[in-house]
Design a protein that fits this description.
about 160 residues, alpha+beta, 2 domains, 4-stranded mixed sheet, 4 helices, 9 strands, about 25% strand, disordered N terminus
C-alpha cells in the first residue's frame, strides 16, 4: 500500500545551500604553480602551502600567514592568566612555543604572531584558529585548569581563555 503526501516533498540534504564563509586571507583564485612567499619561503605546490626548496623562476606572493602577520590581524587569541600562570610563566611559555613550532613544521600557515603581557597574564595571537585551539588544549591537557572557547563564525575568529 502506497501512502501519498499531498504538497509534501522530502528534504534532500544533497541540495541544501552551503553558506559561504568569508576569509579575506584565503586566496580566491588558484595561485600559479609554483608560488613562493618572499617573507617566509613557504612554497605553494599541488594546491597547498608547504615547506620545500624554492623552485627556480617561481611566482612570488605573500602566503596567508605572512599576510595576517603583516596586517596584524590574528585569527586566534589565547589568553593565559591566574596565580598558577604567574608562578609557572616560563614553563607555560615554553610549552606554547614548542606546540607552535611543532604545528608550524607540518603546516606553514599555523604560526604565532605575538606574545604580549596583558592584565596579569599574557595574550598570544595566532594566524590560524586551529593553532589557537591546539595551544589551549595542550595547556589544558598538561596543567588542567579552566578553559573556554569563543568562536565567532562570521569573522572566522577563535578566542581561547585559559586560567588556573
Amino acid at each position: 500500500m502506497k501512502t501519498r503526501f499531498t504538497g509534501y516533498e522530502p528534504i534532500r540534504h544533497d541540495r541544501l545551500v552551503q553558506e559561504y564563509r568569508h576569509d579575506a586571507y584565503k586566496s580566491k583564485l588558484k595561485l600559479p604553480e609554483p608560488t613562493v612567499c618572499p617573507e617566509c619561503g613557504a612554497v605553494y605546490h599541488e594546491g597547498r602551502w608547504q615547506w620545500a626548496a624554492k623552485p627556480a623562476h617561481a611566482h612570488e606572493e605573500l602566503c596567508p600567514a605572512c599576510h595576517r602577520i603583516h596586517d596584524e590581524f590574528p585569527a586566534g587569541y589565547v589568553h593565559l592568566s591566574g596565580p598558577f600562570f604567574q608562578e609557572h610563566r616560563e614553563e607555560l611559555l615554553h610549552l606554547i612555543k614548542n606546540e607552535a613550532e611543532k604545528a608550524k613544521v607540518e603546516h606553514p600557515l599555523k604560526r604565532l604572531i605575538k606574545i604580549e603581557d596583558e592584565d596579569g597574564g599574557i595574550l598570544i595571537t595566532t594566524t590560524d584558529i586551529h593553532l589557537a585551539r591546539g595551544l589551549g588544549e595542550a595547556l589544558h591537557h598538561a596543567y588542567k585548569g579552566e578553559m573556554e572557547f569563543h568562536y565567532n563564525e562570521q569573522e572566522n575568529l577563535l578566542r581561547v581563555v585559559w586560567e588556573r
